[in-house]
């Protein structure tokens, strides 16, 4: 049975739908929605691209871990994380211990399609398809290690929310 006092956490590659799904899921459950990328941008007063450009990925991951820890202490929350948060072992451990983690799984083609007009993602500079494919294959085992549940994120947001609700609400049955 799930501990529904814990926050519900969405992990997954960029463009997997974490923010869209998280917003709808929080609304359906009457929970607060927290987007850690937005919190980082607010705290740092610059975009994620600017943070990467000015300070580098290590700095960004340090701030990300602090923000995630703060978000995990919120009661009654649905949390959407950044796609690379699972690259840090301590962050993976925190997410798995303190939350109910859903991995929104996507493939290279879906990410490529969803990011085709998006040039704001710092890790996709250059050959976008190649970078997506390499990053996805590097991170897949980390997502799997962190997640309590894996959800195919190729369907509509409404269908994905419905699947998550089935798991969450299904755990309430005695």
Quick overview of this protein structure:
The chain has 174 residues and is of the alpha/beta class. The protein is 55% helix and 13% strand. Helix 1 crosses helix 8 and helix 6 (108-114) crosses helix 7 (128-146).
Can you describe what's shown?
- This protein is α/β, with parallel strands linked by helices.
- Helices cover 55% and strands 13% of the residues.
- The chain has one domain (8-170): P-loop containing nucleotide triphosphate hydrolases (Rossmann fold).
- It has helices at residues 18-29, 36-44, 48-55, 57-72, 89-98, 108-114, 128-146, 157-170, and strands at residues 8-11, 32-35, 77-80, 100-105, 149-152.
- It has a five-stranded parallel β-sheet with strand order 2-3-1-4-5, with helices on both faces.
- The model has no long low-confidence stretch (mean pLDDT 90).
């Amino acid at each position: 049975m799930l501990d529904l006092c814990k926050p519900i956490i969405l992990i997954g590659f960029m463009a997997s739908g974490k923010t869209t799904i998280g917003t709808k899921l929080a609304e359906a459950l009457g929970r607060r929605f927290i987007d850690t990328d937005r919190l980082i941008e607010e705290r740092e007063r610059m975009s994620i691209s600017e943070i990467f450009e000015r300070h580098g990925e290590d700095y960004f991951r340090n701030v990300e871990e602090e923000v995630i820890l703060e978000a995990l202490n919120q009661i009654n929350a649905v949390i959407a994380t950044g796609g690379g948060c699972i690259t840090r072992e301590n962050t993976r451990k925190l997410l798995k211990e303190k939350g109910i983690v859903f991995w929104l799984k996507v493939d290279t083609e879906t990410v490529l399609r969803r990011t085709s007009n998006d040039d704001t993602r710092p890790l996709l500079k250059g050959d976008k398809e190649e970078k997506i494919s390499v990053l996805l294959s590097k991170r897949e085992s980390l997502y799997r290690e962190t997640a309590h549940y894996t959800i195919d994120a190729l369907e509509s947001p409404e269908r994905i929310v419905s699947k998550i609700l089935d798991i969450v609400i299904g755990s309430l049955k005695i």
